[in-house]
Amino acid sequence: MKLDADFFDNINYELQEPKAGNILISDPFLPDPNFSRTVVLLTEHNEEGSLGFVLNRESDFKLSSIIDDITDFDANIYVGGPVGLNQLFYIHRMGDVLQNSKKIIDGVHWGGDFDQLKFYIETKQVKPGDIRFFAGYSGWSPGQLEAEIKEKTWIVAPIEKEQIMKESEDYWKEILSGLGNKFKVMSNFPEDPNLN
């Protein structure tokens, strides 16, 4: 049986409004290599646009390989999106302890004072499971994300803070199938609908 890529468009589900703290789960057949089978955590969504980080695109780098004075911290670096790839961003569970960080949801913040973060890393007050690092970010201009959601490029869903820090090779599939039966079916679609 051949599966038409437009099949996804015909699956009915309630469109959710995006907001900081929600995730965007990509359409199974999204052809954009930057976002194919990705889960993006929205950190900002307002009249100026939207910003977030891809949670499931691990790079080949560790934090200790790109920051000279951090040698004993084995945290992976993820590709947060196609914008600003030469910039380092981070989400963490350090809350108000890390100055100038911004709350995403209860228990999860992003950004903050990097020198202070390095001190916490050096003194072992933070573990790799408490923080995720990203090279680059995902960004949308005003109205762009809403248009993509209406086109069913993205499924908007809430996420638990424990899931944000989880690392898994099947992250996209696990998150999508966790939304219920029709999404579980979609999570098993082949990447190329012509191969079904």
Automatic annotation (TrEMBL):
Record InterPro entries:
AlgH-like
Superkingdom to which the source organism belongs: Bacteria
The record's Gene Ontology cellular component field reads: cytosol
Q: Which Gene3D superfamilies match?
A: VC0467-like
Assigned protein family: Belongs to the UPF0301 (AlgH) family.
PANTHER family per the record?
UNCHARACTERIZED PROTEIN YQGE (PTHR30327), UPF0301 PROTEIN YQGE (PTHR30327:SF1)
Q: Under which name does UniProt file this protein?
A: YqgE/AlgH family protein
